Amino acid sequence: MPPVSPPSRFALYLDLIRWNRPAGWLVCLWPTLSALWIASDGFPGWHLLVVFVLGTFLMRSAGCCVNDVADRDFDKHVKRTAQRPVTTGAVSVKEALGLGAVLALLAFGLVLTTNTAAIAWSVPAVLVAIAYPFSKRVISMPQAVLGIAFNFGIVIAFAAVQGSVPAVAWWMWLGNLFWVLAYDTEYAMVDRDDDLKIGIKTSAITLGRFDVAAIVAFYLLFLSIWGLALDGYAPGAIFYIALAAALAQVLWHFTLIRTRTREGCFVAFRVNHWLGATVFAGIAGSYLLLQLLTN
Hints:
The chain is mainly α. It contains 15 helices and no strands. The protein has helices spanning 9-16, 23-40, 46-70, 72-75, 85-88, 93-111, 116-135, 142-162, 167-190, 192-198, 203-207, 211-229, 237-257, 262-270, 272-294.
């Protein structure tokens, strides 16, 4: 049997940014696009669409680089993360940080094509993204810090379109924070046994036996806040049909996580992007139908 060739640098970099695991950046993308549609009162135009799709992917990829460097000594003790490129030494710390910096600069270059308000909001967005990996050492619910980092897409979207961040954006921000708490607690449940051994703080550990109930409550708060906040912004029944479909997915998530198995919790996390896509489809579909009816 011929020897197996080691992966190329390019393949290692793709592994580092989770290229083959798109769920992580899709859960960032859908609320960002939802905000973009609300801020624009419909389709935002191809320029902003490209900026926010590529920007979301690039910033999430940069965040993976920073996260893996910060967690490299912990990841070796966790089954799911033990083979990450930085943890195994296949990619050096310097390489990972360099790649992360390049990706972040590319994302910033995209923001520079928008306006001053969006550029200004992108600065704290980067700082929180850098701080998140280290929050797991000191904060009992680091998932909340992740939510703040992921939610900047909503804020920057409104800033890029309107030059300011209105109240509805902050209501979307709050609702989306609960969605992040829901899906990232599911993610944390996968590694709970390993995290307890190495001393990492997560919401799954903090919530204890109330984890499943809390996750369901987080989902319901997300959908309720968005449903109330966007009443009148996403006109028509399509949006509420989408919320009902998302609610059905919450019930599915409950069936996946109620026994707290690694497999069930991991599946629940990985399919979360469908919930976000459903809500976005309801928003975009509402605007599209209104446009068709009024033209």
